[in-house]
């Protein structure tokens, strides 16, 4: 049977059609062979998705940005992932003194009997307050605390103290010491808040709660926060920002935008090493002027956000400021004492979470802005994220069951993914480092009352978003604290971000969102052979640039040489999703001395053929004390002390 009797086409047209199809088949084969590893791994997606969610190849897929949906257990990283043993999980030993809201302490007589075989009548306790040294410009005030005079501890009455160390005795025999953070109602804070909230109605105003855990990527959250993740999805019905892209390297460079609406460079560089951070445009100040109580808590005091080789605050930045306690705990033997049970600093996280719980209980329906960030546990080791699942789950459950989340907008998030270690040499690691997890909860009644906001939040789950947008959302939320006459008050602007209550433009690119191309995950980066001459040039420009940045420290830091090119990728302007249509190379190199591993983005100017490093450069292996001879927090990651 002749083919053309079946199809009413003549032979010539058939051949043309055949050639046409052949062209596409070959094209496809060539394309898949050359296509990035990136696209190959997205093909085998086995990511858990919620029931009503369409399984897509992309996390977000918009004309401005496309981000692949990656498998958290991809073969390239599988050997690096392991679950931490539940047995190791830390349960803070239950202390017979229980902390109640408004700084009241009570004795649990059963525990006292069980642990010490003592009755309430047999013991007496004293406490000493832990105090912040009052501000003095000459000192690094923020690093000082002092222990006040001893006072008799009376149970069941509110103590007018924020942080205490308690010691208990049987007759005169000492038997127990404990550090306790309290959340008293503070008289002059309340008076100020009352005065300020005059003139603002309380209609739709929500508390703000920002709770962060350091260095947890979206993918590592899926790997390790199984209980918490399920709870966020099924019970809290949280919004998840799937297209959230970091805007700077480390915590400081990502949280400053979130808290102030500006890049950190706007305020700070090494020339400002004696600067206090009091005057920054912190979003909590806006809430404070509207009668909100404010709280700021962080663990790991040495490496804290505004304190690591920086000067911190001259005066407490918020009404409730956890830092003196954090300093005292780290200096005490508390952590050592719990070492058997809490071997991976879970205790410090637990302390911060307990403080948050207690604060919300004390405040009840009073309005507040709370920012808590915990870093010790998860900062350095990829899989320690597993230890943070239970404490996080417990915290969220508490906040939900106590009704707190029904009057609160909560941002539960991380600043970036893990920045160091083996996983950073894989493509998956390079992407996930730039994409921390971010969830938002908004009370159901608020969502019902503001359906457009709710719709926009759902839409924005799959748009390109940044820390600046979180800030803009908190600015937007201020509008719901109306005047008594029902009108809305104009608010501070936040021009780098877009409120998530509004629709993020579908065509938003990294450039629109103030994400430099070094951090941009929308870039579709293809593998390119490190042997290509252009890559050698790019790698040399990278190393030369680092040496140039270290010029002022040339007496202290060794001059680096390129030792090896580990990996190279290219984004080309043939791809419509590429950032600004430039050709850019993401190059990973080892330098010597020091065996440092750096990852930089080098842009090719097609007219001048000039190569330049874009924005910051990542250091992707731990530098430890290699750079202990310099203090510059930005340049430390590059320097190898001679
Ligand atoms: C507990 O203390 C009582 C005295 O107060 C003593 O008789 C009893 O043996 C103690 N129990 C234990 C288990 O030590
Ligand atoms: C603080 O510095 C000023 C001027 O630099 C000096 O006069 C003063 O004595 C210093 N105070 C303390 C407590 O060090
Ligand atoms: C340091 O920051 C200030 C602004 O805060 C800026 O004017 C100055 O140029 C910066 N210096 C360097 C070396 O970047
Ligand atoms: C949440 O708050 C709303 C408005 O105040 C109230 O109507 C609703 O009953 C509350 N829901 C719960 C579960 O407490
Ligand atoms: C995005 O779309 C808006 C209007 O739809 C337009 O004004 C804007 O220029 C577009 N931006 C880009 C980067 O294409
Ligand atoms: C080196 O120091 C000088 C003077 O302190 C400063 O102006 C310059 O910006 C510094 N250079 C670099 C690369 O930091
Ligand atoms: C090439 O880039 C370097 C910086 O890396 C710059 O100093 C130089 O002026 C540029 N040359 C041209 C021709 O643009
Ligand atoms: C750096 O740390 C290593 C171990 O981590 C130690 O052996 C070495 O003495 C340290 N060097 C300096 C200069 O502190």
Automatic annotation (TrEMBL):
Q: Which residues cross the membrane?
A: 12-31
Q: Keywords in UniProt for this one?
A: Membrane, Transmembrane, Transmembrane helix
**What InterPro entries does the database record attribute to this sequence?**
Alkaline_phosphatase_core_sf, DUF229
- Record's keyword annotation contains ATP-binding: no
Entry-linked CDD domains: ALP_like
Q: What is this protein called?
A: Uncharacterized protein LOC106459260
The organism named in the record is Limulus polyphemus
Instruction: Give the source lineage, highest ranks first.
Output: Eukaryota, Metazoa, Ecdysozoa, Arthropoda, Chelicerata
- In the UniProt record, the gene name given for this protein reads LOC106459260
